[in-house]
Amino acid sequence: MAVEIGAIVEGKVSGVTNFGVFVEIGDVTGMVHISEVARNYVKDLKEYVSVGQAVMVKVISVSPEGKISLSMKQAEEPEQREERRRPQRRDREPAKVSRGADSFEFRPKQQESLSFEDMLSKFKQSSDEKLSGMKKSDGNRRTAQSRRKPQ
């Protein structure tokens, strides 16, 4: 059976280790790394799978040596992914934290999708504002050279 990258196939768990799960797909065996088993933190793989269990996996990559990387969490249906996400709280304002000169405002992720250029320009703008504020406060301080005694 030829394994195709991106294909979602059913396999049988042939082994469970502390770092991943080995899955037989036809006549070949691939591995699901512990980070690719579930969307949440996985401490013990035996809580999620057992030897002989049938699982759906997505083929992530195939190395030149023939090692097959698989993912169980990427093979989930989109509806299953939505169920596991935490519901967003929309009943309160975003938290504001003030810490003097280094104040910042926490803003949750924006719902709109911005292009990379837009995100970069926003970052540069906020960075310039912070730098100008720092330069103003540095202007009032003595520099290391002005503290030196003339020789």
Which features does this protein show?
25% strand, 151 residues, alpha+beta, 3 helices, OB fold (Dihydrolipoamide Acetyltransferase, E2P), five-stranded mixed barrel
Assigned CATH class of the domain at 8-76: Mainly Beta
- What class would the helix/strand composition place it in? alpha+beta
What is the global morphology? Answer: elongated
The name of the CATH superfamily of the domain at 8-76 reads Nucleic acid-binding proteins
Mean pLDDT rating: 77
Quickly give the CATH architecture of the domain at 8-76: Beta Barrel
CATH fold field value of the domain at 8-76: OB fold (Dihydrolipoamide Acetyltransferase, E2P)
Helix content: 10-25%
Radius of gyration: 26 Å
Strand proportion: 25-35%
Helices and strands, in N-to-C order? EEEEEHEEHH
> What is the overall number of helices?
3
Strand order across the largest sheet: 1-2-3-5-4
Question: How many DSSP E strands?
Answer: 7
Low-confidence stretches: none
The largest sheet, given as strand count, sense and whether it forms a barrel, is: 5 strands, mixed, barrel
Distance between the termini: 83 Å
